[in-house]
Amino acid sequence: MNTDIHHYIVRNNQKEWQPLIEKGIRYHGISVISLRYDETAQRSKTILLKFEAGATYPYHNHPAGEEIYVLSGEVTLEGVTLTAGDYLYTPPNFKHAVTSKTGCTLLFVIPEEVEIL
Fold this sequence. Notes:
Layout: E1 18-22, E2 25-38, E3 43-51, E4 56-62, E5 66-77, E6 80-83, E7 87-90, E8 94-99, E9 104-109, E10 115-116
Antiparallel strand pairs: 1-2, 2-3, 3-9, 4-8, 4-10, 5-6, 5-7, 5-8, 5-9
C-alpha cells in the first residue's frame, strides 16, 4: 500500500470530463470523471457523472447496490426526482433507469459493474 496521501487525492483541475463509454457503447449526453479506480477489479468504483438536459441511462441492475449523491441539478430514478443535496442508497440487485430533464452532476459509488437489462 502506498503511504503517501498525495497518491489518493484527486484535485479539481487534475481530471477532465470524458464521454461515458461502457462495453463499447457510448451514452450520449453523459460524461464521467473517475475518482477511484480499483486496479484489482480493473474498473472505477467512485465516479462523477454529468447528465446533459434530456440524457438517459438505460434500465439496469446493480448487483452490489450503489450510492448516489446529487451535487447539482435534478435526476429521476423510478419516477422519483432527486435534487441537489439528496442522497440515495440502492440495495443489491436494485433495478432502475436514470434520466435528467434539466441536467445534473452526481457522485456515484458503485461496488460492482452494472448489468444493462
